[in-house]
Amino acid sequence: QHYPLCVGCEQELPWLGDHCRYCALPLPMAGLACAQCSRRLPAFEKVFALWHFGFPVDTLISRFKHHRQWPLGRLMAELLGQGLRYRSA
After folding, report:
1. Residue 42 main-chain phi, psi, to 5 deg
2. 57-66 and 71-88 are packed helices; what angle lies between their axes, rounded to 10 degrees?
3. Sign of the C-alpha dihedral computed for residues 58, 63, 64 and 66 taken in this order
4. N vs C: which end of the chain shows fewer Cβ within 10 Å?
5. How far apart are CA 36 and CA 14, in angstroms?
């Protein structure tokens, strides 16, 4: 790992499971569109999200943005990059 997060903590992150293929809203099955996106497609093509926006992800983002804890940006970038590589494989 290139970031200060142990494997246990990484596994405890609120990982996003099955979700809307457009907006990433959690859904019971993969590949579906949520009710809102089914009625009207969003102006964007797709959202890429790894986690639910809840603890501790919301705290990490808040500390990065509002408390200038810049190393957390590196941590989140590493995790997002890892997720992109995994999902595009």
Report:
1. -70, 165
2. 130
3. positive
4. C
5. 23
Q: Which residues pair with 51 in a beta bridge?
A: 15
Q: What six digits make up the tokens of 3?
A: 């970031």
**Residue 51, SS3?**
strand
Domain count within the chain:
2
Contacts of 68 (CB under 8 A, 6+ apart): none
Instruction: Tell me: do 61 and 88 sit in the same domain.
Output: yes
Tell whether 45 and 64 lie within a shared domain.
no
Cα separation, 57 vs 76, whole angstroms: 9
Structure confidence at residue 1 (pLDDT)? 40
> 73 by DSSP, 3-state: which?
helix
- Structure confidence by residue, pLDDT tens digits, 42-71: 999 888 889 988 888 999 899 999 999 998
